[in-house]
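We modelled the chain as a single entity of 291 amino acids. Its sequence is:
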Amino acid sequence: MYRQAGIYVAKILKGAKPADLPVLRPTKFDLEARWADGTASLIRKNATELLALAPDVVVVSGNNSMGALLQATRTVPIVFAQVADPVGSGFVKTMARPGGNATGFVQFDYSLSGKWPELLKQIAPNVTRAAVLRDANIPAGIGQFAIVQAVATSLGLEVSAINELDADNIGRELTDFAVVPNGGLIVTASALSITHLELIVALAAKHKLPAIYYRRYYVDRGGLISYGYDILQQFRGAADYVDRILKGTKPADLPVQAPNKYDLVINLKTAKALDLTVPPTLLARADEVIE
């Protein structure tokens, strides 16, 4: 940038008018990345570090990191992805007119959570009990469980929550839960559930628990079924918003967007290992079947 400024100074000294020299945008950007692994203290530390670098815009994933950033700045533009209920969480004023320094992409509406017990019963009709893995310390954990619980009752499905998402507790709770037959597992959206992704899939297989997940990541690694948003679509949209902000658009003028499509992914190999026959109607609805 300074090299180009020197060229412009030389041109002006030779008689060029500033009005005739186009404003140039950077062709190279510095990118700083941080990963907090769902740990609150590390999230706050990362937010402080990134803002100290005086960024032009910050891209953030998840409610916990979003909350920490907004506590630290109300001026630096923020583009979020994979955030649940940004209005209810106080991140934006409305979806259509965010009104502050943040905008972005919602991972799903809470009503999506009601599809998980329905799909679990369709693929594993003998399941009468379901453990619900959730982060009770975030609004999304509470909201998702409330919808799951309401729908599960209408399906004759008894649900119980696993709230403490550290590795030891997940292992202990799922082991205890699996002692009684006809159990299943519903994994709701949270940073901590991603942190323990491999463990959760392994425990579901070990205890033969039919499980439904909110992202296909789990199914790619051996999980049974997932129904949720396309993460690539979220971040492609975020990249577009970053571009528009760098070109002068204010976050307050960019509407928060929700997914317009959710993907159903089924792992037939896992279904076979669980002695499940996937209904043809469910296979026909699937966006992808892993064999």
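As a brief sanity check on the tokenised model: The CA atoms of residues 38 and 191 lie 5 Å apart. Strands lie at 58-61, 78-83, 102-106, 129-133, 158-162, 183-187, 211-213, 225-228, 263-267, 288-290.
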